[in-house]
User: Which sequence fits this backbone?
C-alpha cells in the first residue's frame, strides 16, 4: 500500500498528484475535454471525482470504505462516533478513480466535539461530485434517516443511497424494507408531511459493506456519476491519510475494542514521536483520557490492558505499514479535553 504523506492534514485543499502519462495527454491539448468533448480512446473516457459518504453513526461508512479499497484505511467499531477525521480513501478501477471521503456520522451534537463532527460532515457535502448516503438497510427507514434526507434535499450533486447490512436482511423482508426507504424519499406513508415536498428519485443500492455483496454495482453507479477527468492520485494509492493520523486511529481502535462504556468517548491519541531506526519504526504515543479512573482502566492490573492494546495496535500498524514496529504507549489524564477547542485543534480535528 502507499499512504501518501500529506502535511496539510486539515486543509480543505487537495493538491492533485499528476500522473505523468495524464499530464502528457493534457499538455497534448485535450485539457478542455469536457463531457462529449473528449477525443476518444480509453483515457478520454476516464472519470474521476469525490464521493462523500454520509450517514448516521454506525451504519457502516468506515466498513464500506475499507471494503471498497480492499485495505484497512478507516477504523470501525461497534461504538458509534469512532470516525473523527475526514479520511480520503482512493478507489481506482480501469475506467474511474473515486476519492471517498469518510465523514463522522451526522447526529444531534451533544458537546463541542459533537458539533465539530457534524460540521465536518456538513462541510464535506459542499465540495464533492456525488453524495453516497449510507443507511442501515436492515432496519426500516426512521426519523434519523429523515433528518439527513432533509439536510441533503437541496444539495446540488447527485445523491445515491446504499441500503447497507443487506446480509442481515431476511429475503422475505427485503422488499418491505426497501419500500420504507422509497416512502421516505417520496414523502409518502409514515413520511407524508402537511406540505408535500417534491419526491426524490435517488437510486437505492442494497449492499453489504461487511461481505462485499452489491458493492461492485455500487461502484459502477458511482463511477458513472463522476465527471470525466484524469487520475487525481497514483493508481496504487489507497489513502492520503497522513501516516501519523492513521497510527493514532489504529491505536484508538484498539482502545475502543478492549474497553467498555466508560472510556471510548473521551479518548484521544497523540503520536509524540516516530523514529525510523533502520529496519523498524519506533512510535511513541500517548492516549489522552479525561479522568484518572479511565487511566486506571486503560492501564489495567499490572499494566496488562495497556500491553494488550499496544500489542493489538502494533500488529495493525505492521500490517498497514508493511514492516516491524516498536510501539510505546503512555496514558495521560487531561481533564475536560473534549471541551477545549485549542486541544482539539492541536490533535488535528477540523475547526471549520
Ligand atoms: P460508521 O460509524 O458508519 O463508520 O460504522 P462502522 O463502519 O464503524 O460500522 C459499525 C458497525 O456495523 C460495525 O460493528 C460493523 O462491523 C457493522 N457493519 C458495517 N457494515 C455492515 C454490514 O454490511 N453488515 C453487517 N452485518 N454489519 C456491518
Ligand atoms: Mg466510521
Assistant:
Amino acid at each position: 500500500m502507499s499512504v501518501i504523506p500529506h502535511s496539510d492534514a486539515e486543509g480543505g485543499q487537495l493538491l492533485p498528484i499528476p500522473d505523468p502519462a495524464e499530464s502528457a495527454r493534457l499538455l497534448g491539448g485535450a485539457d478542455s475535454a469536457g463531457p462529449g468533448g473528449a477525443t476518444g480512446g480509453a483515457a478520454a473516457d476516464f472519470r474521476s471525482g469525490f464521493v462523500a459518504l454520509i450517514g448516521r453513526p454506525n451504519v457502516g461508512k468506515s466498513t464500506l470504505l475499507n471494503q471498497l479499497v480492499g485495505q484497512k484505511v478507516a477504523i470501525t467499531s461497534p461504538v458509534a462516533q469512532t470516525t473523527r477525521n475526514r479520511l480520503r480513501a482512493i478507489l481506482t478501477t480501469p475506467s474511474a478513480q473515486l476519492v471517498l471521503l469518510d465523514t463522522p456520522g451526522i447526529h444531534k451534537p451533544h458537546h463541542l466535539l459533537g458539533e465539530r463532527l457534524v460540521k465536518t460532515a456538513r462541510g464535506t457535502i459542499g465540495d464533492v461530485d456525488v453524495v453516497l448516503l449510507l443507511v442501515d438497510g436492515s432496519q426500516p427507514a426512521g426519523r434519523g434517516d429523515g433528518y439527513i434526507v432533509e439536510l441533503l434535499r437541496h444539495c446540488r450533486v447527485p445523491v445515491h443511497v446504499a441500503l447497507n447490512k443487506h446480509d442481515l436482511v431476511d429475503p422475505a423482508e427485503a422488499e418491505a424494507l426497501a419500500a420504507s426507504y422509497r416512502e421516505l424519499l417520496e414523502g409518502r406513508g409514515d413520511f407524508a408531511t402537511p406540505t408535500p415536498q417534491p419526491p426524490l428519485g435517488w437510486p437505492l443500492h442494497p449492499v453489504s459493506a461487511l461481505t462485499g455483496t452489491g458493492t461492485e454495482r455500487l461502484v459502477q453507479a458511482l463511477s458513472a456519476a463522476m465527471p470525466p477527468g484524469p487520475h487525481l492520485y497514483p493508481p496504487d494509492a489507497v489513502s492520503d491519510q497522513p501516516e501519523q493520523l492513521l497510527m493514532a486511529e489504529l491505536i484508538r481502535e484498539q482502545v475502543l475494542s478492549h474497553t467498555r462504556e466508560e472510556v471510548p468517548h473521551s479518548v484521544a491519541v497523540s503520536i509524540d514521536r516516530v523514529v525510523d531506526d533502520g529496519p523498524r519504526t519506533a512510535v511513541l504515543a500517548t492516549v489522552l483520557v479525561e479522568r484518572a479512573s479511565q487511566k486506571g482502566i486503560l492501564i489495567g492490573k499490572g499494566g496488562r490492558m495497556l500491553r494488550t492494546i499496544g500489542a493489538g495496535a502494533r500488529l495493525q500498524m505492521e500490517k498497514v505499514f508493511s514492516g516491524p514496529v516498536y510501539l510505546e504507549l503512555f496514558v495521560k489524564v487531561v481533564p475536560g479535553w473534549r471541551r477545549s477547542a485549542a486541544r482539539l485543534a492541536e490533535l488535528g480535528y477540523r475547526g471549520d
User: Anything to note?
Assistant: DSSP finds ten helices and eleven strands in the chain. The longest helix spans residues 304-320.
